[in-house]
Amino acid sequence: MRPSDKPKEDYQHDEAGVIKPEKVSARDKAATTSQVARQIIDTEAAARIRKTERLRVLRKAHANELKSTRPTRRRKMASAAA
């Protein structure tokens, strides 16, 4: 959670009128960091799975295209001199 996402009543003002968020415990900071890190990892994993599937489909389509356009091999004719 970014400081700008907090409700206004959670902020404190110093003597100069500067807004300062209230202090957060180390445990809460660690929990927030872990949560955000897991979200990032999950998002990247999902993107990697989508990309892998897309590439797999393209690879199969390319292989099928090559099979249909590959020229057939000609058989060698037996020579008459043999």
What's the layout of helices and strands?
Blueprint: E1 11-13, E2 19-21, H1 26-69
Antiparallel strand pairs: 1-2
SS field, number of helical segments: 1
What composes the largest sheet? 2 strands, antiparallel
Instruction: Encode the helix/strand succession as letters.
Output: EEH
- Provide the number of structural domains: 1
SS content category: mainly alpha
Strand content: 5-15%
Number of strands: 2
Low-confidence stretches: none
- Strand order of the biggest β-sheet: 1-2
Q: How does the overall form come out from the CA principal axes?
A: rod-shaped
What features would you describe in this structure?
The protein has one helix at 26-69, and strands at 11-13, 19-21. β1 (11-13) and β2 form a beta hairpin. The longest helix is centred in the middle third of the chain and has 44 residues, at 26-69. It is mainly alpha-helical and 82 residues long. A two-stranded antiparallel ribbon has the order 1-2. It has one domain. 0% of the residues are buried. Helix content is 54%, strand content 7%.
Task: Give a quick rundown of the structure.
The protein has 82 residues and is mainly alpha-helical. Helix content is 54%, strand content 7%.
